[in-house]
Design goal:
- With 572 residues, this protein is of the alpha/beta class.
- Helix content is 30%, strand content 27%.
- It contains 17 helices and 25 strands.
- The radius of gyration is 25 Å and the shape is globular.
- The relative contact order is 0.11.
- It binds (2R,3S,4R,5S)-2-(hydroxymethyl)piperidine-3,4,5-triol.
- The site of (2R,3S,4R,5S)-2-(hydroxymethyl)piperidine-3,4,5-triol has 7 residues, from loops.
Length: 572
């Protein structure tokens, strides 16, 4: 999976042009605020007032800042990311109550600008992976004021109580101070979004059983939660147990955590209204089990925005714009199910963390669901063992080996990232990744179907790649003109007839070499008018080579090089 040096150079040049973040240190002009926009049922993140696709990576994030930044940037450059996710730690930010240390934030801003990338900053506040390990020491030592959760047996759990009002107040103040500083220090909008907490929720107990929590558990469920979950009970103001039965503990904890984080987000937005999101440690999306069974509450982190409580989170934390899945699912079906579950009419799809061997191709599946961004985790050189085990690469192999499969996505899409974001927002783009056992996928457009096949050879139909690595995107530019890009696949087109003809079912697919259909008794065959290979530069498609003959006679084949085609079609 190596690009030739000429191709790399061309991609790099086009990428740099497409990825300019203007860096003017003195007298910086204030740029428009990044914002989420919804139109015709589709979302986009607007940056500089136009749709933007985050080609992201999250650094290995747990410690040693900022000393490890030199090990981050070479990896980011290799990947061609346009956005880097980096944490800000509460313990470092507020070493003593009310004393804020902005040095890490300023370093991140300065270095990101030097490297022409945007940032998503992650607020490691009350929660990081279900615990309070990044709370400042002065809080960790004051357990009465900043208590842990308590389990069913009265034992303290390694997770903060969402009912600790002093902790909430402290987090709100610190987060607001962080956002205030960002507002002053970042008129150029290097930071696009902020993640509020990290994988909030609890391991070790489904909810808090402290007296404060118990009192609320026995009180009526807030009406907005009853509405969001469409609860109908005999009582008009049921308590949690009456409203939700066996799910009551988990739903109660989700509400408590969401309400807390919603208030932290609102406090930050009040000073600087950047888009904000919360990320989820997931439950099994396909095999959620009842109590006592695999997949039951307790077998996953409880209280975070897992797929079953998204409506609770939306109602309890309206200041959050996005609820986002951290996808480390091993099996392909689960991975794809998660993408579907978080792509909702009230929630843009955003993948803030992901990992796993062979999962890089699902960037294309996310694109097919109009993702606003995608960000594999731990792709830097700071923590080799952890990164490699996450990506299941062989530790004896060179670093690039685990970066390359992810990097290939961005090498391909990077130069045309703004076009892709716009086409997706306009509903003109479809994308797909190979699934085992599915050798062909059909992407329907107005009057053409794009047929993507995997594992095809010269005159042989696709039978699937030996390892499912195929991926493709197709976008309609004009009537009969498409942008096509991908890896390890063949793309061809077949006339689709009009909507009326499709309805009347007078369409029969032919089997000839050129895809054909019999529409209302008349054969229509696809012909390529013009197949142009090229790249986008400053929004303009630049031709580098015309394809014809062997390159088009069997369909359009994509291998391991990043190839973008503009394809004009007609019938005969
Ligand atoms: C998910 C967390 O959100 C990340 O911060 C990191 O801990 C990863 N898991 C990988 O360990």
């Amino acid at each position: 999976m190596k690009m030739t040096s000429a191709v790399r150079a061309a991609v790099l040049a086009a990428f740099v042009v497409a990825n300019v973040v203007v860096t003017i240190q003195a007298q910086v002009k204030e740029r428009p605020l990044p914002r989420l926009v919804k139109k015709d049922g589709r979302f986009a993140l607007f940056v500089d007032d136009a749709p933007y696709l985050m080609l992201g990576a999250q650094v290995h994030n747990s410690s040693s800042w900022p000393a490890s930044l030199p090990k981050v940037w070479p990896a980011m450059e290799y990947l061609h990311v346009n956005t880097v996710e980096m944490p800000v730690y509460w313990e470092q930010f507020e070493p003593r109550p009310g004393q804020y240390d902005y040095t890490l934030i300023d370093t991140l801003l300065a270095e990101a600008r030097q490297h022409n990338v945007h940032l998503v900053l992650l607020w490691f506040g009350t929660w990081k992976n279900g615990s309070q390990h990044y709370m400042p020491e002065w809080m960790k030592l004051d357990l009465d004021r900043y208590p842990h959760m308590v389990d069913r047996n009265g034992e303290a759990v390694d997770s903060p109580s969402p009912h600790a009002m002093a902790a909430l107040d402290a987090d709100k103040s610190a987060f607001a101070a962080f956002m205030r500083h960002l507002k002053e220090a970042d008129p150029q909008r290097t930071v696009l979004m902020v993640q509020v907490e990290n994988e909030a929720g609890a391991w070790g107990s489904v909810r808090d059983y402290s007296p404060a929590a118990q009192k609320l558990f026995e009180a009526p469920v807030p009406p907005e939660i009853l509405g969001a979950m469409q609860v109908k009970t005999a009582s008009s103001s049921p308590n949690w147990q009456q409203a939700f039965g066996p799910d009551a503990d988990e739903y109660f904890h989700a509400w408590a955590v969401a309400k807390y984080i919603g208030q932290v987000a609102a406090a930050g937005k009040a000073v600087y209204p950047l888009p904000m999101y919360a990320n989820a440690a997931l439950r099994d999306p396909l095999h959620a089990g009842p109590a006592g069974q695999p997949g039951a509450p307790g077998s996953y982190e409880s209280g975070g925005p897992t797929d079953n409580v998204l409506a609770i989170w939306k109602a309890a934390a309206p200041a959050l714009d996005v609820l986002a899945p951290d996808i480390y699912q091993d099996d392909d079906a689960s991975y794809l199910k998660v993408l579907e579950l978080y792509h909702r009419d009230d929630n843009p799809l955003f993948v803030p963390e992901t990992g796993g061997a062979g999962k890089d191709r699902f960037f294309f599946s996310a694109l097919g669901l109009q993702t606003i961004g995608f960000s594999p985790f731990g792709l830097d050189y700071t923590h080799k063992a952890a990164n490699r085990s996450l990506n299941q690469a062989d530790p004896s192999r060179p670093q690039e080996e685990f970066l390359t499969p992810w990097a290939m996505n961005y090498w391909l899409v990077g130069p045309m990232q703004r076009e892709i974001a716009r086409l997706n927002f306009e509903g003109k783009l479809k994308a797909v990744a190979e699934e085992p056992g599915k050798a062909t996928e059909t992407l329907p457009f107005t009057s053409w179907d794009a047929i993507v096949s995997f594992g095809a050879a010269r005159n042989r139909r696709g039978a699937g790649n030996p390892k499912p690595a195929g991926r493709a995107l197709v976008a309609q530019l004009e009537d009969g003109q498409f942008l096509v890009a991908g890896y390890f696949c063949r793309v061809d087109f077949r006339p689709a007839g009009t909507e009326q003809q499709r309805k009347s079912l007078h369409i029969v697919e032919g089997t000839q070499q050129n895809p054909s259909v019999l529409i209302d008794g008349k054969w229509r065959h696809r012909q390529f008018l013009r197949v142009e290979e090229g790249t986008y530069e400053n929004g303009v498609f630049k031709l580098s080579r015309l394809w014809n003959g062997d390159e088009t006679d069997w369909g359009l084949d994509f291998g391991e090089d990043p190839i973008v085609l503009r394809v004009s079609l007609a019938t005969y």
